[in-house]
Design goal:
The structure is a homodimer of 578-residue chains. Chain A starts with 8 loop residues before the first helix and ends with a helix. Chain A is built from 25 helices and 8 strands. Helix content of chain A is 63%, strand content 6%. Chain A is elongated. With 578 residues, chain A is mostly helical. Chain A has 2 domains: 389 residues, no CATH class; 141 residues, 2-Layer Sandwich (Transcription Regulator spoIIAA), CATH 3.30.750. A 6-stranded mixed β-sheet of chain A has the order 4-3-5-6-7-8. In chain A, helix 2 packs across helix 15, helix 9 packs across helix 16 and helix 20 runs parallel beside helix 21. The interface between A and B is large, with 69 and 70 residues. Chains A, B: It is a multi-pass membrane protein. Chains A, B: This is Sulfate permease. Chains A, B: It is found in: Membrane.
């Protein structure tokens, strides 16, 4: 195992030249400008002081650049993970206390450790158990929760709670205390940002800019909103009129911090950390894959786990909170021409400079502006079309999505995503436990066997053939037993039962024991059990057991062989059946 | 829905005649004789007073006879469920206290309610998720735990704990206080019962009895052991020498009792009750099915749930504890000729007479004798051959069984069976998430396509065909994406990828979205995606979506069609490839 397995830097560093450096530097400047207001805003969303957002965008980015495999992924605080952080940490400590910030560090450390463990054990596949509909439902519901949580900042009243009813109730109660200057600033910023997102890019394109350039400039809209509203607050002294501002932010590089590793805190944060890890990983890896595929590159999901794990560990020890790869900023990074992970490292440098030099400038930045950037960003996550798609494709999927959305809104992010995973896995298991089985007959004039309910096929009154369209395993073993024995109880004249196994991809030990039990019970009743078209790998396993020796009937290579051997008189019987 | 759906009595009652009555009565007498010592012993195992065992064999049996569907199943206290009761109730109250007996009633009520709910919702399928290897491992480990727990009674010292290390440690500490008369009685009874089980039946057969009669008489061995050791204790006044006896047992019919429904107790007992319900149901239904099949009868698993639920509810309100269908006694009932559930009702009558009239006779019955009957009965449950079978068939199954046995012994029944279920379901999901996929080529001179690693097949350098041997669902959707995109990254010359779907039994919404993503990414790279041999039900679903419109390639009816259309030049190219 080469050292580059865990430290992929050399792979790209060897070919690093001046032109790559130029491309990476340009992308880093653009992403830095975009990331500053985002970092502050997501720290606010997580219930943390603004500098935590900047710190979470320095060390983690560098560590991801060292260990990750995506050339374009931009790591840092993101909306959904920040919301999940607020929900998890809020159960351990009150916002604004030292315990709260420390719990956020612990959450990042736990999540980092879990991601590293999954990566080192090459267990990236666990993320596969988050189905697309569950993710889509969860992200949509989270977007709504995030928007609701930020509405308070827009009108200058505090919003508490981690579920939609709680948030709306506290918003409603706070409505009479609305602060007018805050509302004006907030509404203005929101309207401006919506316009930037929708109209500005088009105007810029008409003015002759390329689509890419126009989109990138439009992404910098939040910076303009920040600058203008900050200037307004400073110029009109709106802070005195009750407009909440970011305030004093230390002018410093990230501090060295230690997470709280007391067992009670770890126990309380373990499940949220797992959910954050999985959600963050899935989000990140799908962005990274999308961008890699555009350049015919590949990413390695298990190394991505290590990269994200290292990034979160870094966040835990440098005053941050859980981070992951962000969609919007990675796309900007990619479009701006980032070619290697070094672009990320340069971005970290840019943010570090901001943390050292620019923090006095944001003293008067109104929180309403940050809330506006969050609201505009997350509303693009809200997409109910998954409900329509799921309903059309499969009602069961629809119920899973609907339950995920409803539970997330009503009971919070942890309950929502857990329930979604359990529901979708349970649904899959339930379906697997009720395999599709067709009683088949011979299509006259051919060697094909088809479902007797769908086709006009020849049958034999003493020979019953079932085609099983599913692997046989413990949860459906009894189903087959019930089916065969039930059929026999109804048709005592049957002498032979054939199981056509062309679609049986596996038979586990429980299913084998069921087959033995079925065979035993059938022999007790003088009925023989046969198999046909058993797949190679399945046959290999069966040959290692005594099942084939004891089998009352035979194993036929093809179903047609079985028909010929067992229904020799069938062709003569056929006219009578017509 | 006819009333007979839940109350099946009329079905057999209509045809009830004198000869059936005679057969049922004879079976009832035999089962009653066998059930009396068993009931007392399993009450002891559950940590309850002996009369609880008798009470658990009266009302529950009558209720099962009314609602169950098996003609032979004998319901009452059984070893594994009694052990699980002791483990669960021991966490709520100390043995011998009123709270302990009440908690046992609560456990029976909870279990009854769960079984009834599962039956009414027709959710008997949940029991299918207990795989054969997990059950086999769990029963074997439980047998060892039960034997260990009874060894103390055999030497006259108390054994505490619910795990093997705890029990062995307390046994070791108690060893110096061994009571010699108890040890002699216990060892004698154990040796006698082993001999009865092994040798007596053969001797009786040699003496001219039929095998059935010999086996039934041998089953009455415990009654003889009870009679002789009781007489010894009474005659030699061994109680004064420290031999623990059953003591005062009230001479009464079952009392009316009420379970404790305080939320804290219900919460503590909910998981154990669920496990007891599932284990009890699985045990019971497999016995019932085996016996029904011998007479070409059928049982209805969902009505069995209702029958067992009613029985446990009955136990809760009549001084009992959780019950289920016992294997040994049901076989005796069947062999003795029981024809209808009325045999069960008559057995209940027999036990009721015993509870009213015979309890003074068992005052001097030594607990060591009861422990001996339990040890001899449960050691037949211990069967490590499942380990060898599982190892041979599939190492993964072996690890599941081994973990179930080890965890049950080391951490008790609840941890053991829960871990077994989670492991086996997890293993299934893991396998399902890594489908078998083969790259296939044309077998020359045929229309068949086979795995290129196993067969000498014709290939085309620009067309890659994968045969997928698994339903596509969310957990393996990403696997397919990785596979296809990885292949393409390695072979940039490829222009067409065909997915051969002959063994794809289903495609869920996540997998559909993955297919769309794969198609999109392939088109971005100028590669077309095709499908072949899509099954009817899957095709029906796909037709309801936009996938087929947007698909860059085509859907071919057969893989050979795809080959002909895409590899038209293949036959010319072939010689060059050789």
């Amino acid at each position: 195992m080469s050292p580059s397995r865990f430290l992929p830097v050399p792979a790209w560093a060897r070919h690093y030249d001046r032109s790559t450096l130029g491309a990476d530097l340009l992308a880093a400047v653009i992403v830095t400008i975009m990331l500053i207001p985002q970092s502050l805003a997501y720290a606010l969303l997580a219930g943390l002081p603004p500098e935590a957002g900047l710190y979470a965008s320095i060390v983690p980015i560098i560590l991801y650049a060292l260990f990750g495999t995506s050339n374009a992924l931009a790591v840092g605080p993101v909306a959904v993970v920040s919301l999940m952080t607020a929900a998890a940490v809020g159960n351990v400590a009150a916002s604004g206390t030292m315990g709260y910030a420390t719990a956020a560090l612990t959450l990042a450390a736990l999540s980092g450790a879990m991601l590293l463990a999954l990566g080192l054990l090459r267990m990236g596949f666990v993320a596969n158990f988050l189905s697309h509909p569950v993710i889509a439902g969860f992200i949509t519901a989270s977007g709504l929760l995030i928007a609701a949580s930020q509405l308070g900042h827009l009108i200058g009243v505090p919003v508490s709670g981690h579920t939609l009813p709680e948030m709306l109730a506290s918003l409603w109660n706070g409505l009479p205390e609305t602060n007018l200057p805050t509302l004006l600033l907030g509404a203005g910023a929101t309207a401006f940002l919506f316009w930037v997102r929708g109209g500005l890019a088009k105007i810029l394109q008409k003015a002759g800019l390329s689509q890419k350039a126009a989109t990138i400039i439009a992404r910098a809209g939040p910076v303009l909103a920040v600058a203008v509203t900050t200037a307004l607050v400073a110029g009109l002294d709106l802070e005195a009129q009750g407009v909440a501002v970011v305030g004093e932010v230390p002018q410093a590089l990230p501090p060295f911090t230690l997470p709280d590793v007391s067992p009670s805190v770890l126990a309380q944060l373990a499940l949220p950390a797992l959910l954050i890890s999985i959600i963050g990983f899935v989000e990140s890896v799908s962005v990274a894959q999308t961008l890699a595929a555009r350049r015919r590159e590949r990413i390695d999901p298990n190394r991505e786990l290590i990269g994200l794990g290292a990034a979160n560990m870094g966040a835990a020890f440098s005053g941050g909170f859980p981070v992951t790869g962000g969609f919007a900023r990675s796309v900007v990074n990619f479009d701006a021409g980032a070619r290697t992970p070094a672009a990320g490292a340069f971005t970290a440098g840019g943010i570090a400079i901001a943390a050292l030099a620019l923090t006095p400038l944001i003293h008067d930045l109104p929180k309403a502006t940050l809330a506006a950037t969050i609201i505009v960003a997350v509303l693009s996550l809200v997409d109910f079309s998954i409900l329509r798609r799921a309903w059309r494709y499969d009602h069961a999927d629809f119920y899973t999505v609907a339950a995920t959305i409803a539970l997330t809104l009503l009971f919070g992010v942890e309950v929502g995503v857990s329930a979604g995973v359990l529901l979708s896995v349970g649904l899959h298991l339930w379906r697997n436990s009720r395999p599709h089985v067709a009683e088949v007959g011979l299509v006259p004039g051919t060697q094909h066997f088809r479902n007797l309910n769908r086709h006009d096929v020849a049958l034999h009154d003493k020979v019953v053939t079932y085609r099983i369209d599913e692997a046989l395993w413990f949860a459906n073993a009894r189903f087959l037993e019930d089916l065969v024995l039930g059929r026999l109880a109804r048709s005592p004249e049957v002498t032979d039962i054939v199981l056509m196994c062309s679609a049986v991809n596996a038979i586990d030990l429980s299913a084998l024991e069921s087959l033995e039990a079925i065979d035993k019970r059938l022999s007790d009743q003088g009925v023989r059990l046969h198999l046909s078209e058993v797949k190679g790998p399945v046959m290999d396993r069966l040959k290692g057991t005594h099942f084939l020796e004891h089998l009352s009937g035979r194993v036929f290579l093809s179903q047609f062989d079985a028909w010929c051997a067992l229904c020799g008189s069938a062709k003569r019987a056929e006219p009578a059946a017509e």
